[in-house]
Amino acid sequence: MMNPGTLALLIPIIAIIGGLLLGAMRIRQQHGELNKQQEARLAQMQQEITALKGRIEVLEALATDEKENLKRDINNLRQA
After folding, report:
1. pLDDT reading at 10 higher than 70
2. Mean pLDDT of 7-29
3. Is residue 62 within 8 Å of residue 68, measured between CB atoms?
4. Digit-coded pLDDT (tens) for 34-79
């Protein structure tokens, strides 16, 4: 059996260690939530990049299309 002095010393030590462990668990949980938010943002940005690449391909096709170039030349002649 423990004497009262030892017990009086162990109670605050256990409380302090318990508080530190709870704090560490909260930090880990918050860190995990941040990672989930970052992953969601990354996925959103990847979708936006894919959409923008598609739009660029369409614009490149229009810019290099011979029929479109001919239309531009005709329009430029009309405006001149």
Report:
1. yes
2. 90
3. yes
4. 788 888 899 999 999 999 999 999 888 877 777 777 778 778 888 8
Indicate the length of the chain as a whole number.
80
Handedness of CA 9, 11, 12, 18 (dihedral sign): positive
CB-based contacts of 2, cutoff 8 Å, min separation 6:
10
Any residues with CB less than 8 A from the CB of 62 and at least 6 apart, and which? 68
CA dist list (Å): 38 to 22, 34, 80? 24, 6, 54
Which of 52, 51, 72 minimizes the C-alpha distance to 62?
Answer: 72
Q: Please give the Cα distance from 26 to 34 (Å, whole number).
A: 12
In this structure, what token pair is assigned to residue 40? Answer: 């969601």
pLDDT reported for residue 2: 67
Is the pTM of the predicted complex or chain greater than 0.85? no
